[in-house]
Amino acid sequence: MNGWNKTRWLIITLLVVAVYWWAVMGIDFNLHRIIAGLPKGKVILERIFVKSLRYIGGPFFWEMVMEMLKTLAMAYFGTFIASVLTVPFAFLAAVNFSPYARFFKMFLNFIRTFPEILLAIIFVSMVGPGPFAGVLAIGFHSVGMLGKLYAEAVENIDMKPIEAITAAGGNFWQKLIFGVLPQVFPYFASYSIYRFEIAVRSASTVGLVGAGGIGVPLLLKVQGRNWEQVGVIIIVIIITVVIVDYLSAYIRKRIV
Amino acid sequence: MIEFRNVVVVYPNGFKALKGINLHIHEGEFVAIIGPSGAGKSTLIRTINGLVRITEGDLIVEGKHVQKLKDRELRLLRRKIGMIFQSFNLVKRMSVLRNVLVGRLGYVPTLKSLLNLFPKEDVEFALSNLEKVGIRDKAYVRADQLSGGQQQRVAIARALTQQPDIMLADEPVASLDPPTAKVVMDYLKKFNEELKITTLVNLHDVDLAKTYAGRIVGIRAGEIVFDGRPEELTRDILIRIYGKWQES
Asked: Do B158 and A161 touch (CB under 8 A)?
């Protein structure tokens, strides 16, 4: 290694060290505090995942199962609203159907950039706290994502059967219902189910900002440092998400 | 019945697909159109039902000037013209019967058709046309479960369900093996004779054209270079149509 290369390595090393130093200082990093906090962490984790098990099957557990079912309803309804609202956007954003596809794709991207939690806060302010605000947040956000996926399904259709319907004297609506829909519907359904899977997770968290669902008791129990009950809620959410993911994958495999 | 008068088709990209076609097809004829790829066979056949609009000239089908028809009038004309395609063009995820009922779309009120409320007679007619092509038992099977030859027969049943006066076939057997191709061509010939459906078939297979057609039209680079009876199609004429010719 010659002198110049050595200098270069030294400079780069110093720069990297400086970046780390700056980052560590920035977040107030303190190894001592981690070590001091470890026993506390152990206790919390034990309360969440071990001591909570005693409550499984008890009244609080069943109450939370009911809350989870309500949360599923929120996710379902939000996804349903989005699925219906998305259909026109799918065609408006598909290059083979719309001259303004680029504009609508940008619009859908724009919708998607709003984090759900932010939308939930906005809707809680608009329509008051509760599941309705959560449904709106999930629905609105889903339009962005579903719109893009639906539009891709529309762009991938085979135009030949549609030519045949034209040749038989079919009009615009008949071409849509007989030619386009049978081709895109399984994909629309599949994407909506996938989106529902994601919505279940979001519906569990929008409650943290007051938008209903199991996130509401979760927030209350966290604030009260009631870790056993927090644990029960987390376990209910995890089991539900696993079941929903499994069912979703199974159904989607069967329809497309 | 079908009359081309100096018909010119220029595509938006500037390609001149038809360069002054004059052709008169009479009721009940079985006409094969032959010619090399890109000669304009598909374009020619698609002008008849307005899938391709003509740029110049006059095209009269069943007494109507196709180039002057408005949307609705064009749909009324199209329902009397059946069409089958090289790749069958069925909606794969729909049942065979529903595909055949597409042939009634020009007749049934839009809303009823969208709600799948086809009159009983229409459903029975569709089934009887499946019977005519020998696959009634497949009526409730999904279209993509059928073989290529069966799919083309569904497409023929769909066209018959339009109660057409004219049948257009764009390379109907190009994706089929020879025995299956023969079955499909036999059906086209049969319905031409029995139901008096004027039939125009694009074919790249000259032997098939000679076997089935009562009249052969040869086109090359958008112009008609031969129009006559199959036995008049000599080696010299084939060279004129294809540029070169090798006996198979």
From this structure: no
